[in-house]
Amino acid sequence: MASSPPENAPFLKQLVSSDRKSRDKAVDSLRTYLTCGKSFTELELLKLWRGLFFCMWHSDRPLTQQQLACTLASLVSPLPESLFLPWITAFWMTVTTNYSSIDSLRLDKFLYLIRCHVNAGFLYLRGKKWEATLLEGYLKVVRNVLCERVGQVSDGLRYHLLDIWVEELEVVDGEGTAPMEEILGVVRDVAAEGRTKVLRKYAKEVLERAVEKESDGVDLVDSDYRNTEG
User: Where in the cell is it found (predicted)?
Assistant: First the structure.
């Protein structure tokens, strides 16, 4: 069983350094830590993500913020399959728990961090040829964020995730190999079961835009979603 690094571990501090070499060294240390074959408990991953979240919190230059967001997302790629879903789950648990505390001056960098992670998740799944069990587990994690009625998930976070879901899939899936029915299923679930009428309506609009972009003309949105007032 791996012991989690202390939240003030040197590589966490180095991740927000203005020195590129220090940041690169920190990333290498963290990547090695995550891919060394040890097992991690949920608590250990949450502690690690809490440290990474506040690394992002304290990054104070736009370029450094963007690079850090991309760097944290890049940690997804080398993960073993056994760690992919636990890592993604810990990320979303951390984001949903802390989202309401993010002030307006810090919001943009965290929205970019979320976008980078959605992209990284799709890249990982594409690399695994959209393996059904892995994809199902990933979509379950995202569905919990979008559709959870109990808890502290901000509607602002849900709107952002809906906004970028199809956009980032298009960026990753240029060859059109992704199982669109399954991936858009999480948006359909929000359209049918979203917490508020406004959220359900917004999800339907996302589905409409997705259909319009489909070059093959396949109707991915049931007519019920177009005609139901919510």
Answer: Nucleus
